[in-house]
């Protein structure tokens, strides 16, 4: 029974992480640059994406990944004892977990708020001040999303390689 639960927990963790990383990569590398290139029309796309639950999807995949990861971490160290926390694999898991948590915090605190503000500005009357704010938000979102994507890739690689130690 324990093996089945551990397998289900690990599968949920991997699936949520794959969805989170895949969505983050698609948004960072393709969707957001296309929205920026679309100019004023891009704001309507962001507003519609948020209305359809993009923010909820990203938060729920990040949250599921982190919660299942914490459970797996707790089970792993519970089975191996405190001494296992000093090995190379354990250190890689810890750094990977911290990278994932940092990505979630940056994604929620910065990218989530940036998307909400961009969606709100899509309905605002066009003015130079509004356009300048939109441009600044796009720049911030682009920079932060690249950092978040990098953190997610680092977390993934460290999780993969930690299994070798």
Task: Measure the end-to-end span.
Answer: 26 Å
Low-confidence stretches: none
Described by the principal axes of the CA atoms, the overall outline is elongated
- Number of distinct beta strands: 0
- SSE arrangement, N to C: HHHHH
Structural class: mainly alpha
Describe the sheet with the most strands: none
Mean pLDDT rating: 90
Binned, the helix content reads: over 70%
Fraction of residues in β-strands: under 5%
- Using the CA coordinates, give the radius of gyration: 19 Å
Number of domains: 1
Secondary structure layout plus pairing:
Blueprint: H1 2-37, H2 40-51, H3 54-80, H4 88-122, H5 128-162
Helix pairs in contact: 1-2, 1-3, 1-5, 2-4, 3-4, 4-5
Can you put this structure into words, describing what you see?
With 165 residues, this protein is mostly helical. It has one domain. The protein contains 5 helices and no strands. The chain has helices spanning 2-37, 40-51, 54-80, 88-122, 128-162. Helix 1 packs antiparallel against helix 2 (40-51) and helix 3 (54-80) runs antiparallel to helix 4. The radius of gyration is 19 Å and the shape is elongated.
